[in-house]
Predict the structure.
Amino acid sequence: MSRITLTPELQDDYQRRFAACVIREERALEVEALADAVLAERARYQAVGEPLNIPWFVAAALHQADVGGDFTVHLHNGDPLTERTQHWPDGRPVEGEPPFCWEDSAADALRLRHFDVWTDWSLAGTLFLLEGHGGWGYRLHHPDVPSPYLWNHSTHYTQGKYVTDDTWSETGVAQRCGTAVLLRRLAERGLIDFAGTGELLTWPLLRYAEAEPSPWVEALQRFLNTLPGIYVKVDGRAGSRTSAAFYQFAGVYLPGDPRDSMPD
């Protein structure tokens, strides 16, 4: 059982980080190549995920993060498909005989990890499941370091990692692309959508609301502060100053701003 629960606060944290996720410039080509690679193999990921009600892109992200996208090894642990797994979890898959088809072995790995019984494939639900798979050590013991299993190759993560399950290195740097970063690039390209997104969000995302913090407004505020002569507090609250700064940029106030309905 997970040591962490998906609270509203944690949901908000995932949504904010995903909204503010920026892929590092020096990693952009690598992440783009990974996105191309998983898209090219989409049919294989769908063949594994769809019978288990798992989105294809979740299977793809796991495959890239756990075994580097290698179709000749078990998703469980990277052992070769020519035999049952030799390392933990050993003896998998239980059914069938080697050499194993990658799809059959991958489905076994997902069932073993109980991905097939997960039902919350919203953005927050997906990232929660992926972070739990990568390990809660960062959030529990090093909360200043966002899990690289999610955020490596983005500006959210710089350094610090577990070099073994129990050994922490302040200077260690993760190597593989974070699962959330890969999903972010796929979303930017319009290739994936998360379940329930339309129901969870109130449109328009950017609107005048002084008392309601929003990750989308926070992202807008960060952008507005990059423009000459604009200085707004980054707090996610779209009040008078944020709306006025938006007017300077776009020529209109945020929807809901009382000034928007005033006669010229």
